[in-house]
Specification:
Strand order of the largest sheet: 1-2
Distance between the termini: 44 Å
Oligomer: single chain
Number of domains: 1
Number of strands: 2
Structural class: mainly alpha
Helix content: over 70%
Low-confidence stretches: 1-19
Order of helices and strands: HHHHHHHEEHHHHH
Radius of gyration: 22 Å
Strand content: under 5%
Largest sheet: 2 strands, antiparallel
């Protein structure tokens, strides 16, 4: 089914496989809608009360600042790191940056789900919250939204660093390869002042990371839902190990299904691909600049469907959990 949707995305008007139109407008509208929806939920619902508390709790954790600082430092250090990629150093830099943001956000999401949900259940804190006019469904949904918001905040900060680093990296690589690098800024006079303007050639390369960032956000949403569902029944260690297994299987099974391997292996891979999330559909780092709006739309629908499925599993699992 997913392959059919990808073909439809490739055949959509103005959406070629190799010459896809950059989906920046769709990304902008999507981000705006998500931000508005989160603000409405956070400040006008009981779920939002728990979500804001969970997000503040996650941000206060030393791991949040540590992961964000390490990830940003790795991105900045990669600017001067030679990749020996034969004039494709900028492409390798972008792939490494996307992988850094992906790993940092996913680790933060899984860790926060373990500490925010499992620890509160084991420590009887959840029972105190549920004694107030908050039911179990609101508790789970609020925790999930708080975990997601803290992880997406990390992605946002690291994306700003990544955009600036990519903008600079493109010119740096041009100079390293003996070409004339474009200027860092254009300066235009405005009265008695000189105002800097971004160089279009550098800006286009920097903006090419955005589709990959959006797909990373989709993966964070899915794996956060998986982690919350597991946290309703199992402690942190089991949650982390299970999410690691889901991450590996989710990226590996689509490859095994379409590879020319033994039929038994293909059948087992197909079973796993049906049960586990197909995370490899969100792993288009090398071709993030060619991802079109239609593909992002189908990826968003897949993300929403699997996230809703896992949240329903979490609600069912938590409904009869003994908190006493």
């Amino acid at each position: 089914m997913w392959q059919s949707m990808c073909l439809l995305a490739a055949d959509a008007p103005g959406a070629g496989v190799l010459r896809a139109e950059p989906p920046y407008t769709a990304i902008g509208w999507g981000v705006l809608l998500v931000v508005v929806a989160l603000l409405v939920v956070d400040y006008f619902t009981r779920v939002g009360i728990i979500a804001r508390a969970a997000m503040k709790e996650a941000i206060r954790q030393p791991l949040f600042l540590l992961m964000m600082a390490i990830g940003s430092s790795v991105i900045i250090l990669n600017i001067i790191m030679p990749f020996f990629a034969f004039d494709d150093d900028t492409t390798m830099f972008i792939e490494c940056g996307l992988a850094t943001i992906q790993i940092s956000a996913l680790l933060m999401a899984v860790w926060t789900a373990s500490t925010s949900v499992a620890d509160e259940i084991e420590g009887k804190t959840a029972m105190t919250l549920l004694s107030k006019p908050i039911n179990r469904q609101q508790f789970i949904l609020g925790k999930y939204l708080g975990i997601v918001q803290s992880s997406l905040l990390m992605v946002l900060v690291m994306t700003v660093v990544f955009l600036a680093a990519t903008y600079f990296k493109y010119g740096y690589d041009q100079g390293e390869h003996g070409a004339q690098p474009p200027p860092l800024f254009y300066w235009r006079a405005a009265g008695n002042m000189q105002i800097p303007y971004l160089v279009q050639q550098r800006l286009e390369v920097a903006l090419s990371i955005l589709p990959g960032i959006v797909l990373i956000c989709f993966e964070v949403l899915v794996l956060s839902a998986v982690s919350v569902a597991i946290s309703t029944r199992f402690p942190m260690l089991v949650n982390v190990l299970t999410c690691l297994a889901v991450f590996v299987i989710g990226h590996l099974t689509p490859i095994l299904v379409h590879a020319g391997v033994h039929p038994v292996v293909r059948f087992v891979a197909q079973v796993f691909a049906t049960i586990f999330p197909a995370l490899d559909h969100f792993n288009l780092q090398g071709a993030s600049a060619q991802v079109n709006s239609a593909y992002l739309g189908f990826a968003a629908m897949y993300c929403a469907a699997y996230t809703i499925f896992m949240l329903m599993a979490a609600l069912i699992s938590f409904e009869d959990r003994d908190l006493a």
